[in-house]
Amino acid sequence: MYGYLLIIHSYLRWIALGFLLFSLIFIIMKKSNKAIYTTKHYQLFKVIKNVFNLQFLVGILLLTQSPMVKAFWSQVSQAVKWREIRFFGLEHPFMMILGVMLINVFTHKTKEKIGTDNAFNYLFVRYLIILFILFVSVPWSFSPFTARPNFR
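Predicted structure:
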C-alpha cells in the first residue's frame, strides 16, 4: 500500500501545484480587469482548496505507512540529527499541514468578501505565501537537502 500511496501523492502534487498556479494567474487576470468577487469565484477557489484537501488526506495516509516517519518517531532524539529522516518525519508534514490549513482558512474568509473587489488582492498575497511554504517543503529532484524524483 505504501508504494501506491507514494505514487498517488507524487502525482497529486503536480495537480495541486497546477491548480495553485492557475489560481494565481486567474487572480492576476481578475485584478487587472477590476472584477468583483462573486459566488462563482468563491466556488472555484473551493474546488482548488478541495484538491489540496485530497492531497492532504493521501499525505496523512502516507504518513502512517512511511518507514522514514516510523524511524523518525521511534528514535526522535537521534533522528533529528539526520536531515532526510527529519525532513520526512517532521519538517515536510508540519509545513504541508500549515499550508493546507492556510489555504482552507484564507479561502473560507473570502466568503465574507463576495461582492467586493478586494478579495482578489487578499487571495493573491496569501496564495503567494502558501506557494512559498509548499515550494520549500516539497522534496524536489533539485533539492540539495532531500532530493526525490519529480515523477515516480
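Summary: The longest helix spans residues 2-32.
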